[in-house]
């Protein structure tokens, strides 16, 4: 039976005034404040032998003991689904996610997900994501194709989550968007959060609401009524590129949520592909760069545009 992991930390003088939940994230003990807050609420974080609240502010010099419970039994069944593996070792696996595949089980998608396929492929995934999202450090939408990294153990998960939080992971996408983007490139800076009237979708929100979102883009090719873009994520909010491009008036081709339902292009889903992912290996410290080739329907759409609209 798996045992709980116990970590002991000394609070440096520089951490004086810092909240305990923030301290745990900064130390890389937990991947997020919400994960740390759950441990704190369950009395699994002690400061000088006493339980505290998430809002507790440190003074410096305290002894912090964190008990991380063992992973709960997985609620997801392994399924023999083919995977396009771009890189793999005992700590992480990087895959090229196909169009139409959901990353992890959720309402309406109980099986056939990437997690189901991964469990059949490698049997062990990090438990930090919970029983339905083991190993999942970041996600791609169902109809977005491309590179995605998954953690096989908690140490790798924490290391990857820290890099994403610190915005050192390079995530490069290519997208076919509606309209002729006149600028050769630019940066979109907005706040993104749940749409105030439709909570199922995201939206650009006024200052002070939502979370900051930054996308850098550059034009790769113009076709008159469509443009091929490269988009580099500085942040990684839900639906970020899709929301930002729609905000600019150039929604992703065939994005049925944020743009016209039909594009007339031979795409089987939205024209968005995660082409490159670059990060530092969370255990070995070497730079890992993975690239996923454009899917067939994306290439077919580009070929169609080059023949008919130029």
Number of strands: 14
Largest sheet descriptor: 10 strands, mixed
How do the helices and strands follow one another from N- to C-terminus?
EHHEEEEEHEHEEEEEHEEH
Based on Cα principal axes, name the global outline.
Answer: globular
Question: What's the gyration radius in Å?
Answer: 21 Å
Number of helices: 6
Which structural category fits the helices and strands?
Answer: alpha+beta
Terminal Cα separation, in Å?
A: 63 Å
Which stretches are poorly predicted, pLDDT < 50 over at least 5 residues? none
- Mean pLDDT, nearest integer? 91
Helix percent band: 10-25%
Strand content: 25-35%
Task: Describe, in plain words, how this protein is organized in 3D.
The chain is of the alpha+beta class and 310 residues long. The chain contains 6 helices and 14 strands. The protein has helices spanning 20-26, 33-41, 114-122, 154-165, 240-247, 296-308; strands spanning 5-10, 45-47, 50-51, 63-68, 85-88, 92-97, 145-151, 170-178, 185-194, 202-205, 211-222, 226-233, 272-280, 287-291. Strands 5, 6, 7, 8, 9, 10, 11, 12, 13 and 14 form a 10-stranded mixed β-sheet that branches. The chain has a 4-stranded antiparallel β-sheet with strand order 1-4-2-3. The relative contact order is 0.13.
């Amino acid at each position: 039976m798996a045992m709980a992991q116990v970590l002991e930390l000394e609070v440096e003088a520089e951490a004086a005034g810092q909240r305990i939940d923030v301290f745990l994230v900064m130390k890389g003990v937990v991947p997020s404040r919400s994960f740390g807050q759950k441990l704190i609420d369950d009395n699994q974080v002690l400061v000088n032998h006493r339980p505290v609240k998430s809002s507790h502010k440190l003074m410096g010099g305290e002894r912090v003991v964190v008990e991380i419970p063992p992973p709960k039994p997985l609620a997801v069944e392994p399924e023999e689904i083919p995977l396009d593996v771009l890189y793999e070792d005992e700590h992480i696996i990087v895959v090229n996610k196909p169009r139409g595949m959901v990353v992890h089980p959720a309402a309406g998608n109980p099986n056939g997900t990437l997690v189901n396929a991964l469990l059949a492929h490698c049997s062990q995934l990090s438990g930090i994501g919970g029983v339905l999202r083991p190993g999942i450090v970041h996600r791609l939408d169902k109809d977005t194709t491309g590179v995605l990294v998954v953690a096989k153990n908690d140490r790798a998960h924490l290391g990857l989550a820290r890099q994403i939080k610190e915005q050192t992971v390079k995530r490069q996408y290519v997208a076919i968007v509606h309209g002729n983007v006149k600028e050769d490139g630019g940066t979109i800076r907005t706040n993104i959060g749940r749409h105030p009237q439709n909570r199922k979708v995201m939206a650009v929100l006024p200052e002070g609401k939502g979370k900051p979102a930054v996308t850098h883009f550059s034009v790769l090719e113009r076709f008159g009524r469509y443009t091929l873009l490269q988009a580099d994520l500085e942040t990684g909010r839900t639906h970020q590129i899709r929301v930002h491009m729609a905000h600019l008036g150039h929604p992703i081709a065939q994005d049925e949520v944020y743009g016209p339902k039909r594009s007339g292009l031979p795409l089987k889903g939205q024209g968005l592909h995660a082409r490159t992912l670059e990060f530092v290996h969370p255990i070995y410290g070497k730079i890992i760069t993975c690239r996923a080739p454009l899917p067939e329907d994306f290439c077919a759409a580009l070929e169609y545009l080059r023949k008919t609209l130029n």
